[in-house]
Each structure stands twice: as structure tokens, then as C-alpha cells.
Specification:
The structure holds 2 protein chains of 2 kinds. By secondary structure, chain A is mostly helical. Chain A has 2 domains: about 60 residues; about 210 residues, MetI-like fold. In chain A, about 75% of the residues lie in helices and about 0% in strands. The longest helix of chain A has about 40 residues. The two termini of chain A are about 50 Å apart. By secondary structure, chain B is of the alpha+beta class. In chain B, the strands form 5 sheets. In chain B, strands 6-7-8-3-9-10 form a 6-stranded mixed sheet, sandwiched between helices. In chain B, strands 13-12-11-14-21 form a 5-stranded antiparallel sheet. Chain B has a 4-stranded antiparallel sheet with strand order 2-1-4-5, with helices on one face. In chain B, helix 2 crosses helix 3 and helix 2 packs parallel to helix 4. The two termini of chain B are about 30 Å apart. The chains are: A mainly alpha, B alpha+beta. At the A-B interface, helix 8 and helix 9 of A face strand 6 and helix 2 of B.
């Protein structure tokens, strides 16, 4: 008896070790590129040329980061990523806020104020989520030209808002659909109007799904390259386009350390959003299914 | 007494499905109207129509003699309590109760005064700072009532408010609602599928089925003089016994023949002045079928039959026997000595019996 019990435990321990081993392999597999990026960005060009790819830097230097941020050349301009970083911020923040708000109101109407054809409209919006980016490039360019927003930051905000509404509506609709309709009925009898009910009752309930939507939209818009490269001009390009230009416009020596630093800078905001709001993200994704 | 709610010829349909047909109901100030029926009978839809949450397709609804058919819910001077309570989840109890007043722009002093008044009345003063999620079912129910009371409306609407509570709490809250009705002298419309709730609370009951009103009356009328087989069967627990029988006209009265389980025929005599067709259904409540020896009533008739099942229920004992094809429940004293399988005499009080037409189901 005693023997078999300890044998069982031994088996368990071996399995545990095996499990951790496999997991560690995957962790290394996923983190190795990041490791290489960070170490490379902290090395000098000289060291990169002579040392090994995965070796730790002998002398840590932030020179490449400084270059990437403020003096690296994107095409003929040599101002680093800085102006484009701000472009991306000025595009992403309004676009995220506007598309999230519109999605919230859309979802509220579709889930709680049932009207004739609500299902069809929702289905069409859902369909909008599946339209590939490339398909709308030409029509969108034409529309932007007509409304005089071509090549501007406002034009890019407009494009991202339109393209995002399908997703944000879907998120909010699925969240609000689990809220009992009696809540709206009670508020109507209490005398609250359409917008008052939304503002006082539904929005305060929406923190988890708002976080999900904001993360989703921010990641989409920040990481977007195609719209950015198609609908911008010299002064209004987002950071993804600038990053591409930095990497492609080298004269003579390839500055790997600057490229790596630039890539990390470009990815930093989405990384930070995940780190700070990630736990709400998981919570929000499952929140719709749990009744309050 | 003046009319507080007058529903005239109301029809309602969802697409091609009609859910309310020619509804006519009138109640006076201070009445407690209960709409009762099985699920899907249209009772909740009717309540929503009264509240203005559903539009009616034709007819009129008057509240306090004002035609409210096209008026928004907030202007109908009503308050409503929902089955799921529908408390605003992110607001405290206090905010839940004052939300309606705040929306209507009442001053802070009035809001506070009414809040204190109502929370004292419902004994929820110590809960005011909590959120609905931190309350028990019974407490939420009280808060939902508070939100209705604070409005001091002309008409209270209740949509199955007790069906989410456990059995004990349900009986407590039932008593409380009845007391509230008495204390306030308020007019109330109450929807339930529970016929005991209907009987205990109502001053007037409307029994519905498939969007049609089956009967309107006081609990006593509904219970003792059901208008048709459906009402007879639906109201009362255990249900009214419905027994097929043949009649034979004699000089002044009718002879009623019931076929027994063993093929024999039992004959009863109905002495009331009635006009009965040949085939009938007798409706007789369990409490009107008793044990021999318990004070013999006038017009009481004896049937001898086998005892199939004995169900002691504490205060009474239900005895089930078979007459013809139908199982018949009788209500005996709890001290009864009858045994399963024995053959005993059942005493039927025909004075209290109802007769129905077997084809139309209507009362004769």
C-alpha cells in the first residue's frame, strides 16, 4: 500500500517536471525574438558586427534608441520616429473613443430597443467585420477626396472609425443582450429618456466590455499599416509606415540596433495597454455570459 | 366608487398572432385586480399594455377616466414592480429609489423626505447605501416595492413579483403586499400564474386563457361559480373534480347517474331548480366530498367506492378514488381512519356542485 502511494506521487512529480519542461521550451521559443531585439538595440554597431546574435551586450548603450526616436532617416526626412509616433497617437485616441462610443450606442439600440429590421441591420454590421481592408481602399480614397479629408489625420480617424464600428457594435450588442429588458422598462416608467437610460444605467454597467473594445480598437488602429500607407501624405503618416521607412531607407551600413529600437518603440503602446488592462480583457470577454 | 382602470375592447397582436382578444375590464379605486392564467395566456402582455410598454392595436385604456392609450408610460401615473425586480445594478438602494424623482426634477429635500418615509415603511433603512448585488432576494423585492411606492401613483402594477422567492418568503411577502394594499388603500393590478396568490390577494380576479378572458369576478364567485371547465380546473388546489354523468328528468328534480369503476351506476338526486341537458360534467370541489358521519348536510348524497390513495397533508387528508374514468379527490379530516383498498361511503354535497356542458365546457 505505502509503496503504491509513493509510487503514485513519484509519477505525479515526474509528470509535473515534464509539463514545466515543455512550457519552458515554448516560453523560450516565444521570448527569444524579443530578447534578441532588446539586446541588439542596446549594443553598438561595432559589437553587433563582431559578436554573436544572442550574446548579452558588453557595453549597454542607449544611443540606438535616441537615434530611432529623433534622428533616424525615414526617406529624405531625418527626424526619427517622434513626429510619426505623435501622428499615431492623434489618430488612434480619437478614433478609439469615437468608434467605442458609437459601438456602445449601436449595441444599446440593437439589444434593448428592438425595432423592425434590427436583426438585419445587425447582420449587415457583422458582415462589415469580414470585409477585407483591400476591398475598401479605392472607394474610401474616393470618398475621402469628396469630403476633402484626403491625406489628413482626420481622414485616417474617419476611416478607422467606420471600419471599427462593426466590431465595437458586435461587442456591445453581445454584452447588452444579456441584460434583462425589464431594466429599460423600469427606467421608462421612472420617466427616463432614451439617452438618460443609456447614460445613467447602461454605461456604468459597461466597464468590462469598454476595456475589451478599447484594447481591440487601439491594437487594430495602432498596428494598421495599409490604411496608414494608403490614406496619408508626408506629414501625416502613422508610426507603422515610418518604421517601414526607417528599416528600408538605409545608406551604406544597415543599422540593426536602430531598427530594433524603432520596432520596440512602435510596439510599446499596444504592449503597455495589454499589460495594464489585460486582466480586464479576459474578464470582459467572458462577462457577457455571466449574469450580474 | 369611481373607476380607476377601464380597459375597453382591447386587442393586441404580434404580427399574425393575436395575444389579447376583446379585453374588457373595469375596476374601482382601491380594488386589487389579479390577472391569472397559465403561461402564454396574455396576462403579462395585458399588464405591459396597461403600463404603456406595449402598444395596443385597438381599443382604449382609461386610467382615472383619462384615455391613456397613446400616452407614454412615464405620463400614465403608474408604478410597476417586475419579476426580476429590475433594480439598477450600479446604483445604491437609495439612488434606485430616488432615480425616478431625480429624472422628474424633484428637489433634493422632497426626494430625501420621501426616501426616508418609504424606507421606514418597508424597513430597508439600513440597506440604503448598499448595491442590489449585495442584497438577498427578499430585500431586493422590498427595494423594488420602495421604488414603486415612492411615486405614490394612481395605479400599481405587479408582474409576478413573488415568483423568484422561495416558498416561505413568498407567503410572507404576500401578506405584506396585502397589508400594503390595505394601509394605502391603493389600486393595484397584479399578474400571477399562482392561483393561491390570486385567491388570497384579489378583490377581483380575471382568469385568462389564450388571450381571452374566461371569467371576471370576486375570488368567491370564481371559486364557487366557475364560468367554465377551464376556470373550474385552474382555480383551487387540489383541482375541482370533473365527473362525466348522465341525467334523467324526474318530477321536480333530476336524477344524476355516474358510472362507477366497477361498471355499476350510482344515482344521485339534484334538488335545486335547474335545467340540465342529458350529458353533463359535474364539477365538485374536494372539500364538498367528505367522509360519512361528518355532519350530514342537506342535499348530500352517498356514493360507495374504493379508496385508491390516501394523502395526509397535515391539516387535511386527501382521499383519491375512481368514479368511471376519472380520479376524484375528496378532502377528509386529518384524523380519518380510512385505509387504501377499503370500500367506503363518500358524501357528496351537491348543493355546492357546478354543472358544465361537456361540449362547450360552459357552466349550466
Amino acid at each position: 500500500m505505502i509503496n503504491s502511494v509513493s509510487k503514485n506521487q513519484l509519477n505525479k512529480i515526474i509528470l509535473r517536471i515534464f509539463l514545466y519542461l515543455i512550457l519552458s521550451v515554448f516560453v523560450i521559443y516565444y521570448l527569444l525574438p524579443l530578447f534578441v531585439m532588446i539586446t541588439t538595440s542596446l549594443k553598438s554597431l561595432e559589437e553587433i558586427r563582431t559578436g554573436s546574435l544572442i550574446a548579452l551586450p558588453r557595453n549597454i548603450t542607449f544611443e540606438a534608441w535616441g537615434t530611432a526616436w529623433s534622428t533616424a532617416c525615414t526617406g529624405i526626412r531625418c527626424e526619427g520616429l517622434k513626429p510619426f509616433f505623435w501622428n499615431s497617437i492623434f489618430i488612434a485616441i480619437p478614433a478609439v473613443i469615437i468608434s467605442t462610443l458609437i459601438g456602445a450606442i449601436n449595441g444599446y439600440v440593437i439589444a434593448q430597443w428592438r425595432f423592425k429590421g434590427a436583426n438585419i441591420i445587425f447582420a449587415l454590421m457583422l458582415f462589415g467585420c469580414f470585409i477585407p481592408f483591400q476591398v475598401i481602399l479605392l472607394p474610401m480614397a474616393r470618398v475621402l477626396g469628396l469630403i476633402d479629408l484626403a491625406g489628413s489625420i482626420s481622414g485616417l480617424i474617419f476611416v478607422h472609425v467606420i471600419y471599427g464600428i462593426g466590431f465595437t457594435t458586435l461587442f456591445f450588442r453581445n454584452y447588452y443582450v444579456s441584460i434583462p429588458v425589464e431594466l429599460v422598462k423600469a427606467a421608462k416608467i421612472d420617466g427616463a429618456t432614451f439617452l438618460r437610460i443609456f447614460w445613467s444605467i447602461f454605461l456604468p454597467l459597461s466597464l468590462p466590455i469598454t476595456v475589451v473594445t478599447v484594447i481591440w480598437q487601439f491594437t487594430q488602429i495602432w498596428n494598421d499599416f495599409l490604411f496608414g500607407v494608403s490614406f496619408s501624405e508626408a506629414g501625416t503618416q502613422p508610426i507603422t509606415v515610418a518604421l517601414n521607412n526607417i528599416v528600408n531607407s538605409t545608406t551604406g551600413v544597415k543599422e540593426y540596433n536602430v531598427d530594433m529600437a524603432a520596432a520596440i518603440i512602435a510596439a510599446m503602446p499596444t504592449l503597455l495597454v495589454y499589460i495594464f488592462a489585460g486582466k480586464y480583457f479576459i474578464r470582459g470577454l467572458t462577462a457577457g455570459s455571466v449574469k450580474g | 366608487m369611481s373607476s380607476i382602470l377601464n380597459i375597453k375592447n382591447v386587442n393586441k397582436n404580434f404580427g399574425k398572432i393575436s395575444v389579447l382578444n376583446d379585453i374588457d375590464i373595469n375596476i374601482d379605486k382601491g380594488d386589487f385586480l389579479v390577472l391569472v392564467g397559465p403561461s402564454g395566456c396574455g396576462k403579462s402582455t395585458l399588464l405591459n399594455c396597461i403600463a404603456g410598454l406595449e402598444k395596443i392595436n385597438s381599443g382604449d385604456i382609461f386610467i382615472d377616466n383619462k384615455n391613456m392609450s397613446d400616452i407614454a408610460p412615464k405620463d400614465r401615473d403608474i408604478a410597476m414592480v417586475f419579476q426580476s425586480y429590475a433594480l439598477y445594478p450600479t446604483m445604491t438602494v437609495e439612488k434606485n429609489i430616488t432615480f425616478g424623482m431625480k429624472v422628474r426634477g424633484l428637489s433634493d429635500e422632497i426626494q430625501q423626505k420621501k426616501l426616508i418615509e418609504v424606507s421606514r415603511q418597508l424597513q430597508i433603512e439600513n440597506l440604503l447605501k448598499r448595491k442590489p448585488g449585495q442584497l438577498s432576494g427578499g430585500q431586493r423585492q422590498r427595494v423594488a416595492m420602495g421604488r414603486a411606492l415612492v411615486r405614490n401613483p394612481k395605479l400599481f402594477l405587479f408582474d409576478e413579483p413573488l415568483s423568484n422567492l422561495d416558498a416561505k418568503l413568498r407567503v410572507e411577502m404576500r401578506t405584506e403586499i396585502k397589508r400594503l394594499h390595505y394601509d394605502l388603500g391603493a389600486s393595484m393590478v397584479y399578474v400571477t400564474h399562482d392561483q393561491i396568490e390570486a385567491m388570497t390577494l384579489a378583490t377581483k380576479i380575471v382568469v385568462m386563457k389564450n388571450g381571452f378572458i374566461q371569467q371576471i369576478g370576486t375570488p368567491e364567485e370564481i371559486y364557487n361559480h366557475p364560468a367554465n371547465i377551464f376556470v373550474a380546473d385552474f382555480m383551487g388546489s387540489p383541482a375541482m373534480n370533473l365527473i362525466h354523468a348522465q341525467t334523467k328528468k324526474e318530477k321536480d328534480n333530476y336524477q344524476i347517474n355516474i358510472k362507477l369503476a366497477n361498471g355499476e351506476v350510482a344515482s344521485l338526486t339534484e334538488k335545486r331548480k335547474l335545467k340540465l341537458p342529458k350529458d353533463i360534467i359535474i364539477g365538485i370541489r374536494p372539500e364538498n366530498i367528505t367522509e360519512m358521519g361528518s355532519k350530514n348536510k342537506q342535499n348530500a348524497q352517498v356514493i360507495t367506492s374504493n379508496v385508491d390513495i390516501v394523502e395526509p397533508a397535515g391539516s387535511d387528508t386527501y382521499v383519491v378514488t375512481k368514479l368511471g374514468e376519472t380520479e376524484v379527490t375528496a378532502r377528509f379530516h386529518s384524523e380519518t381512519k380510512v385505509k387504501i383498498g377499503s370500500k367506503i361511503d363518500f358524501l357528496l354535497d351537491l348543493e355546492k356542485a357546478s354543472y358544465f356542458n361537456p361540449t362547450s365546457g360552459k357552466r349550466i
